[in-house]
């Protein structure tokens, strides 16, 4: 059995350990395990960042001065977690500052010969560089400032974590995960087989999370790419609208595991409402979308023109998502599809500096006034995560921010920074 790398999160009580772990794991397909014993035992959660799987160990708050048995048990469990860990996140509270109990935890950590990241939580203003300076005295190098509540800095923290995690024997490092979804008989498996037929360096066939899914990992352009296939959303013969519940669940789980969703459509038939729904479900789960019109070789010139018009009309609400025409049978369009996949992969990893984002904010402030959003005062913006790109915008009167305003900001982000196909997540917060 593969042993995943272990990351322990330790610190005194109430510094935000659980909030950080929930932030890291909220978009992952979690495997939660409590080791045998009381509720004070440490909890293990499987997290996924940029294709690297690792275990997060949730320990209780360390109060080394307490003689109560409850606290002694917590200390014992935290000590075991630190000894087991490959890397330790030492969490402190940037709002409360350096306390004697932080010094005691630091003293205990110096006895453990493990890599320690000093993480200063509750730094809600990304431009506040002074409030965490006192933590340098703990002796664990440069503090990493984050806000677990708002997600600020968490992506950068995880980039550092996976960089230093050891690769265990038998562990497979996946760079990109692609979910292949769509209705039955649209050519999903045929397209996957065609791709794998060209990219013959197949690394592994991994059992998927469902009974009928096989995840295939293949090396493409020096990237380990995982393809997650599904059986498709079926409609029962007993009724046109009676959708097979389990096929829906399988498809949605695949989307949760994917970074890019290839929504396969039979180009020789009509684009259905179900095809569009799958696209929206992929977007909600943070996937980039590529609509793939398969069986293009079957269409005559006039039929292709009609299908292009239908795609423009029926996929209008997801117009930012590219549409690629292919034939799994003849390999027509396959190179363009692969090129589009790698282009989107680069977009998802794009990081925009806070300086550039605040310049952008000043540029669109006047546009916002003329577009009818004069009640909103835009203050500052930061990118808190990549893959998918996630931004936090602080503004006055956030309660008056409408969905059209959110789309206004996202569309301008796309145009300004070239996020043509990656989904953009925007978090709005009230500025102090």
Automatic annotation (TrEMBL):
InterPro entries: AAA+_ATPase, G_ENGA, GTP-bd, GTPase_Der, KH_dom-like, KH_dom-like_a/b, P-loop_NTPase, Small_GTP-bd
Domain EngA-type G positions: 5-169, 176-349
Domain of life: Bacteria
Pfam families, sorted: KH_dom-like, MMR_HSR1
Signal peptide residue numbers: none
HAMAP family: GTPase_Der
Family according to the record: Belongs to the TRAFAC class TrmE-Era-EngA-EngB-Septin-like GTPase superfamily. EngA (Der) GTPase family.
NCBIfam families: GTPase_EngA, small_GTP
Identification of the protein by name: GTPase Der
Lineage of producing organism: Bacteria, Bacillati, Actinomycetota, Actinomycetota incertae sedis, Candidatus Hakubellales
């Amino acid at each position: 059995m593969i042993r995943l790398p272990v990351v322990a999160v330790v610190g005194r009580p109430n510094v935000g350990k659980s909030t950080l772990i929930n932030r890291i794991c909220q978009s992952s397909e979690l495997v939660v395990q409590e080791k045998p014993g009381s509720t004070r035992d440490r909890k293990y959660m499987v997290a996924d960042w940029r294709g690297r799987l690792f275990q997060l160990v949730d320990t209780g708050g360390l109060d080394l001065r307490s003689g109560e048995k409850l606290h002694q048990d917590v200390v014992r469990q935290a000590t075991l977690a630190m000894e087991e860990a490959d890397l330790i996140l030492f969490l402190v509270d940037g709002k409360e500052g350096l306390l004697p109990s932080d010094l005691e935890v630091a003293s205990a950590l110096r006895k453990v010969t493990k890599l320690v990241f000093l993480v200063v939580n509750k730094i809600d203003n990304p431009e506040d560089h002074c409030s965490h300076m006192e933590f340098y005295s703990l002796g664990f190098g440069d503090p990493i400032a984050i806000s677990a509540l708002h997600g600020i800095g968490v992506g950068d923290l995880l980039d550092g974590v996976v960089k230093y995690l050891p690769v265990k024997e038998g562990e497979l490092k996946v760079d990109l995960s692609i979910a292949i979804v769509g209705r039955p008989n649209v050519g999903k498996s045929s397209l996957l087989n065609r791709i794998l037929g060209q990219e013959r360096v197949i690394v592994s066939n991994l059992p998927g999370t469902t009974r009928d899914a096989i995840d295939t990992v293949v090396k493409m352009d020096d990237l380990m790419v995982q393809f997650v296939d599904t059986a498709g959303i079926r409609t029962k013969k007993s009724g046109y609208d009676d959708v097979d519940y389990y096929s829906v669940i399988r498809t949605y789980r695949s989307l949760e595991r994917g970074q890019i969703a290839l929504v396969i459509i039979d180009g020789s038939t009509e684009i259905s409402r179900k095809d569009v729904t799958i696209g929206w479900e992929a977007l909600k789960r943070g996937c980039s979308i590529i609509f793939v019109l398969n069986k293009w070789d079957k269409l005559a010139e006039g039929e292709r023109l009609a299908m292009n018009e239908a795609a423009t009309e029926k996929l209008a609400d997801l117009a930012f998502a590219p549409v690629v025409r292919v034939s799994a049978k003849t390999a027509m369009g396959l190179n363009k599809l692969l090129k589009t996949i790698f282009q989107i992969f680069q977009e998802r990893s794009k990081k925009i500096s806070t300086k550039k984002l605040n310049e952008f904010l000043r540029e669109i402030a006047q546009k916002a006034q003329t577009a009818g959003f004069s009640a909103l005062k835009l203050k500052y913006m930061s990118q808190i995560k990549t893959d998918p790109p996630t931004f936090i915008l602080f503004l006055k009167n956030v309660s008056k921010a409408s969905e059209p305003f959110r789309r206004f900001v996202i569309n301008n982000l796309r145009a300004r920074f070239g996020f043509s196909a990656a989904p953009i997540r925007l978090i709005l917060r009230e500025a102090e």
